[in-house]
Amino acid sequence: MLRIEDLHVEAGGREILKGINLEIGDGQTSVLFGPNGSGKSTLISAIMGLGHCKVTKGRMIYNGIDITNLPIDERARLGIGMMMQRPPNITGVKLKNLISVVSKDNGSILKKAGEFNMDRFMERDINVGFSGGEIKRSDLLQLTAQRPKFVLLDEPESGVDIESIGLVGKKVHDLLYGDELCGKGCVSALVITHTGQILEYIGADRAYILNDGRIKCSGRPMDLLKDIRERGYKECIQCRMVKM
Ligand SMILES: Nc1ncnc2c1ncn2[C@@H]1O[C@H](COP(=O)(O)OP(=O)(O)OP(=O)(O)O)[C@@H](O)[C@H]1O
Ligand SMILES: [Mg+2]
Questions:
Q1: Which ligand lies nearest the alpha carbon of 195?
Q2: Where are the beta strands (DSSP E) in the chain?
Q3: Which domains does the chain show, CATH number per domain?
Q4: Region 186-209: what's the mean pLDDT?
């Protein structure tokens, strides 16, 4: 569904991604691990087409279409959707109005705001004064309204309290597997997580460790997570390199 070839990306005048190669098949979920500042958010921002990411080399093919130079709205129309690590505040735009505009089901998602514990927030400006957990639930509701076919999730569980993590996990699960029209296996995803908590709610096929703008190794998500916990990123990468 998505093929990334030798992708180099600059942000703020510095090369952040230094030759990424990655493939995610139909209905597959891949996980991205890596230390702070390694380029994980930059990678999914570049796939979505966020303005601060400048592709200097390489290309991205989505369902056979070269999306490398497509504007962000066209990528969204093709079915790519993103939950950002830190989405911006949008003063003057009510959450209800944005959801109505992006909704693929004529706004019927608005009736489901309660399931996301977001019904009280619909009249508020997007993210303005929202708590960290409220921002995550709001972003997830917006993404669900878009019914994306390729989902980019940047630390969906971070900052979410222990009680709400079940709700976020279930809604992420529904996002990936809950499309009644095409059933299981039609939505693909790339998920960034530090703790792996979200993996209790979704199945993931493959995981990658990104370090210093390059994918250093890959493996089964739980194996890599265990290695990272026990040995740290550096040793995990060295050990996996030897095994690979
Ligand atoms: N717009 C920008 N201007 C300048 N530097 C940037 C910009 N965007 C990203 N960077 C830099 O690129 C590097 C990678 O950032 P990125 O957000 O991709 O890391 P990350 O792996 O997601 O880290 P974290 O786990 O902390 O979220 C960082 O050093 C960051 O400061
Ligand atoms: Mg990040």
A1: 1
A2: 2-11, 14-24, 29-33, 54-62, 65-66, 80-83, 90-94, 125-126, 150-154, 188-192, 206-211, 214-219
A3: 25-41+71-243 (3.40.50.300)
A4: 94
